[in-house]
Amino acid sequence: MTRRDELLRRLTEVRCGAAVKLDDDLEAALHSRPGVVFVLRGNGLELAPVVQRIHAAGRLAAVHLDLVDGLSTDAAGVRWLVRCGVDAIISAQSQVVSSARAEGVVAIQRVLCSTRSALELGLAAVSRAEPAIVELLPGVILPEVADLVLPRLTVPLLAGGFIRDARDVSSVLAAGALAVTTSERALWN
Fold first, then answer.
1. CB contact at 8 A, 173 and 147
2. What is the CATH number of the domain that holds 75?
């Protein structure tokens, strides 16, 4: 089974990825149901032990390169994360997604949907970069933009951002998301 298949399997099982920013969040995520931990903040020099802890807890690690202090959002930053053992790299930048694919890790491209033109630009970038997975932010708006987004994707879609309760989760899953990513601990279980 490929890394991508394993990541998708885990997201399909629980339908939620634990998005963590702080050490307290990480500890809670390691003792919760999601099989994938999305690391949204961190220090590049301290990331390898974090990834090791995630793996030791039987989870997969997806790291958002754009938000890691001390790493460049380029091929060298991607190679550093690969050496740290990450299973997936998240970025809004097409060149990072392409580099992640070239390094053999799962590439997740974030699309920020602040306006319709931002959504169009993001979807155009997705078609060029060819990520394994797309994450739409804010995910809570997926029900309103699903008809604009889903027909243009050939890969699974995650919804993240402003997912606050079970009603939000149900709504975005019904609209076509494979799973949600959220920092709301109550939704992890």
1. no
2. 3.20.20.70
